[in-house]
Amino acid sequence: MVITQSLTTATSWSTAASDPKLWAMLTQTLLPLYVNTCRWFAGKARQQTGFSARTVHTLPLPDGNVAYLLILEASYADGVPENYLLPLSFIADQTGDALTDVPDKGRIGEVTFGRKSGILVDAIYDGRFRQALLTAIYHNQIVSQTDGQLTFHRGQGLEEGDQELVSRVLPVDSSNSAMTFGDKYFLKLYRKLFQETNPEVDMVAFLTDESHFANIPAFGGSVVWQAADTNPSGSPLRDHADVTLGMMQRMVPNDKDSWMQTGDYLNDFLYGVPQRMFAIREDVFDKVELLGRRTGELHCALYKPTADAAFAPEPFTDDYRQFLIKRFEDLLERRYALLIDNYTKLDAQAQRLAWVFMEAKEMIDTFIADFRTRPLDSLRIRIHGDYHLGQVLATENDFVIIDFEGEPESSITDRKIKHSPLKDVAGMIRSYHYAVSAKLFNSAETDTLDPDHLQRVSDRWFYLIRDTFLDAYLDVFGAPHPLFKNNTEINFLLLIYLLEKAVYELGYEISYRPSWVKIPLKGIIDVVREIEKIRLSDGNVESGVPMLQTGLLQTQRP
Ligand SMILES: Nc1ncnc2c1ncn2[C@@H]1O[C@H](COP(=O)(O)OP(=O)(O)O)[C@@H](O)[C@H]1O
Ligand SMILES: O=P(O)(O)O[C@H]1O[C@H](CO)[C@@H](O[C@H]2O[C@H](CO)[C@@H](O)[C@H](O)[C@H]2O)[C@H](O)[C@H]1O
Description:
Elements: E1 6-9, H1 20-26, H2 30-35, E2 48-60, E3 66-76, E4 82-92, E5 107-113, E6 116-122, H3 127-138, E7 142-145, E8 148-154, E9 167-169, E10 177-181, E11 185-189, E12 192-193, H4 199-210, E13 219-226, E14 242-250, E15 256-257, H5 258-272, H6 282-302, E16 314-315, H7 318-342, H8 348-359, H9 361-373, E17 379-380, E18 392-394, E19 399-401, H10 412-415, H11 422-440, H12 451-475, H13 487-512, H14 518-538
Parallel strand pairs: 1-5
Antiparallel strand pairs: 2-3, 3-4, 4-6, 4-12, 5-6, 7-8, 8-13, 9-10, 10-11, 11-14, 13-14, 15-18, 16-17, 18-19
Helix pairs in contact: 5-11, 6-12, 7-9, 7-13, 8-14, 11-12, 11-13, 13-14
Residues 259, 386, 388-390, 408, 430-431, 434, 505, 508 line the site of ligand LMANGFYV.
């Protein structure tokens, strides 16, 4: 264990919540050092100007001790402060072997509280804290705090008798923390907090309790901080009543998600490619069809004309069109700027694709503007919002859809806006495009192949899989269905959402996986080609976009 700092205070751990000086000390010493080592802390690369304890909630532990749920505010030189959940537990030296379960990444520092010395840890690594969460959810407990209350809610998925289970922290390093109970329940603690109910809780509760949708893990419960109604400090977290801190679901037995499963199928496919053999196994089509159907069933479960305002279907109002256009235009502006800033870092193929994208700007602008006035009679509903192959767990014979938090770049309010479900469909179609492109253009088996040929093979696989998915999806609804007025609207909306998703992905790849930037760029250009076809068939408009060169996705040219 590498502990760089230690701290001594006369205050005992059990009374620490009410000692503001102690929290001031902790937030200036141990805690900033610690959170900057955590994957979930999104402010690492920003210029931090300070940390403070927004509020400290107390949770009694089964052995009579306490843990604290600290809401830590991080301030920056630019932009508004962020709030993070940091649960804290103190493991005194004489507590026996409790510390052996705490990995280095969960140890915050050596502290002496009163006359007891020990280690301050992230409480998720303390079994007593995990058990306290389970007990509180099981019993629908309300625990009063100086600033409101912690409300634990039990969902239908948490079975009678399951109030005491062996728990562990899942080793997934992501933006939240996950733990399991008896390998039967999965509890996600949200780290970055928002001033309202996390959309994931709304969605999962609705799908389980209202629609009884079977292909998500059943809702086991939630942990919510209901802040006191007063707003003395003007803190944004106190303006709203509910802040979601965690959500429990049934644990899904799975060894992989659909991204990995599709990767396995593509490995089989890949072996035939150098032999000029195009072979997709029948069971691959069966799986894609099944995922199409499950996606359709998800949207049917979310389409409830009798639901309350949060879930009731809505038409394509002027407000929505305005919102989408503005969001799209802002996104495009940011992406063009990012692309220009990073242009010289791109390889030659990505640079060629980037040029085509930039030259298509006017056509894209016109296409988006058309959305303002085009008659649209299809409906909008709440959707998944960040739907891709990695969000679907593959069980032995089926699929289970997870992670309903919505698009990471959007605010919580925007994540609750209703869209055509074709936005999710576009997300999955883009994901299949990613899967085949990443595999075919980054594998030793295809390294020496002619890039034009490889591009044609990749396109062929993608179009077959895309159409299989889409047909199975639309079959679920039958025709006509209020969500989809007609084929013309379906095509138009799919193109809009495909373009938006690919433009979004461009930013993600520039920031995290620069060698994959070509994948969304190719996706953008494919949509631009479709738009161009529509324009050309609508009237005698000359094509303004240079012919797309083939082989643009090849990473190593022979
Ligand atoms: N109900 C579940 N059962 C089993 N594993 C799950 C469940 N939910 C999530 N996981 C696993 O945990 C990982 C992270 O979950 P996710 O909801 O995507 O969290 P995050 O919002 O942190 O990305 C998933 O990729 C999956 O492997
Ligand atoms: O972390 P999240 O799952 O919320 O989503 C983010 O990361 C995803 C990458 O893991 C990213 O998805 C993109 O890459 C996927 C392959 O790794 C591909 O299947 C998706 O189609 C593509 O969008 C996602 O966009 C981002 O929000």
